[in-house]
Amino acid sequence: MDHIRAGWFSEISPLWPGQSFSMEVKEVLYKDKSEYQDILIFESKNNGTVLVLDGIIQCSQKDEFSYQEMISFLPLCAHPNPQKVLIVGGGDGGVAREVQKHPLVKEIIQVEIDEKVVSASKKHLPFMAKGFDSPKVTLNICDGFEYMRNHKNEFDVIITDSSDPIGPAVNLFTENYYRLLKEALKPGGIISSQAGTVWTDLPMVKQTVANCKKHFQTVKYANSSVPSYPDGQIGYLVASLDESVDLRKPSFVFSERQIDELELKYYNDEIHAAAFVLPNFVRKELA
Amino acid sequence: MDHIRAGWFSEISPLWPGQSFSMEVKEVLYKDKSEYQDILIFESKNNGTVLVLDGIIQCSQKDEFSYQEMISFLPLCAHPNPQKVLIVGGGDGGVAREVQKHPLVKEIIQVEIDEKVVSASKKHLPFMAKGFDSPKVTLNICDGFEYMRNHKNEFDVIITDSSDPIGPAVNLFTENYYRLLKEALKPGGIISSQAGTVWTDLPMVKQTVANCKKHFQTVKYANSSVPSYPDGQIGYLVASLDESVDLRKPSFVFSERQIDELELKYYNDEIHAAAFVLPNFVRKELA
């Protein structure tokens, strides 16, 4: 699984056959195999520090804020009062870093299965792992499925920051997972999940949306630009138990001052709405 | 300049150091050196036919429609009556293919400097070069600068479909070029130009916007998702000589029926508006 050759890391996966994104490596900072996956962290030449799990780029320092902010604030700002939040996955701490910025959020529970991702991130990705330092955050090293089976009707928002639907994360895209999410939410609860890209696997996105629709009243697909991810973008499944909510309209809007003070580099209320606008070839399939 | 190794084409350029996008090659269809540049056309394994100039991907069959539709319809639909259009560059025919779809467009003049790009595209990229078959289109093989010097006050819309600001296209990003565009336009004229990506070269985008602002009343930067381009997206500089026009609001809206009949796979009026919404880190720099 070592995809570094002649000083370049190349991302090769059956999820996006016939294409590959590569980054020049300055220095390998960490390399280990956990109970769940291969973990690689390297300093790239032009994109800062990069986290790779099972050969797939999870984040690069240059553009990770787009993903972390969007997967967090799309559901949080669509919810009228997101006091208690569950994060499933997200062992690098980036999502926790963003969620704790939201003024209405009081308590964040995070469940991550792989302790080695957390400890390696604390050491090598401190700009993300600082999310764990917030007094709002309680981190549990355990299985997200198990945790939710024992915590019903408890959360306003649940964010699933998973890797791609291959290997350990494959169950996080099934109908059964959306049932669990529904049961762990309070009435009116909202979720967001990493949902792949429409360029490489529109049928998979379509299937995920269909699975989610079996349990949620309103289901939307949004996306944002993340150059280090396949196709240079990533999708978010955002869904609500309340059919009257318009997920595209934030009920909480960050002021310009808050955007500066909280260091929001990507998200604002206009980006929120625009993220849900889809090209014709996608709109047709997800209608 | 041959970037094919072990069956993969890799795009390597000083414009985006330390990163590279690669595609698996099924068959090289064409390879030649014109007076202006190296031309390569290959059949990829998963992205259809791909055109490469001087080692840089110009389009892949899988996603080219995003670029061609957006660079065409952003200016055309913002203009109240775009009867006469000039296309500078665009030797593959893709922009002509889109521009001729607009019901109000009566006449399209295209100036492309490299005849070999046109002839190779006619043979190997017929799905794009079919744009030249429209009775609305007159193609001239000549230098765009020269052409505009001799055609003042003539066009409603001018679209510059250039390669990146390195090599033969470098002059198409200078202040002098925007002066020429202004003079070739009729009053109220609108332009769009390929304008790079904010992820890799925000200072360059900022400079291009500043150059354009010296000659145009309203200048905006928009973008769309194109996985085969660096960072998975591409920017468009859209500018008007009329300060009262809101470039973000299309004055012509394609109906759902037109979208189907004209085979618009990407562009619609909501995408038009959303393309101008920028993340905070860009908004701040381009304000």
Characterization of this structure:
With 287 residues, chain A is an alpha/beta fold. Chain A contains 10 helices and 13 strands. In chain A, the strands form 2 sheets. Chain A has a 7-stranded mixed sheet, with helices on both faces. In chain A, strands 1-2-3-4-5-6 form a 6-stranded antiparallel sheet. In chain A, helix 6 crosses helix 7. The longest helix of chain A has 16 residues, at 198-213. Chain A binds chain B through residues 8, 10, 17-24, 44-47, 62-63, 66, 197, 199-200, 223, 225-227, 229-233, 259, 264-268, 270-271, 273-274, 277-281, 283, and chain B through 8, 10, 17-24, 44-47, 62-63, 66, 197, 199-200, 223, 225-227, 229-233, 259, 264-268, 270-271, 273-274, 277-281, 283. Strand 3 (19-33) of chain A pairs antiparallel with strand 3 of chain B.
Question: What's the helix and strand layout?
Answer:
Two copies of one chain form a homodimer.
Chain A: E1 4-5, E2 8-11, E3 19-33, E4 38-44, E5 49-53, E6 56-60, H1 64-78, E7 84-89, H2 94-99, E8 107-112, H3 115-124, H4 126-129, E9 137-141, H5 144-149, E10 155-161, H6 175-184, E11 185-194, H7 198-213, E12 218-225, E13 233-240, H8 256-261, H9 269-275, H10 280-286
Parallel strand pairs in A: 7-8, 7-10, 8-9, 10-11
Antiparallel strand pairs in A: 1-2, 2-3, 3-4, 4-5, 5-6, 11-13, 12-13
Helix pairs in contact in A: 6-7
Explain briefly what this protein structure is.
The structure is a homodimer of 287-residue chains. Chain A is of the alpha/beta class and 287 residues long.
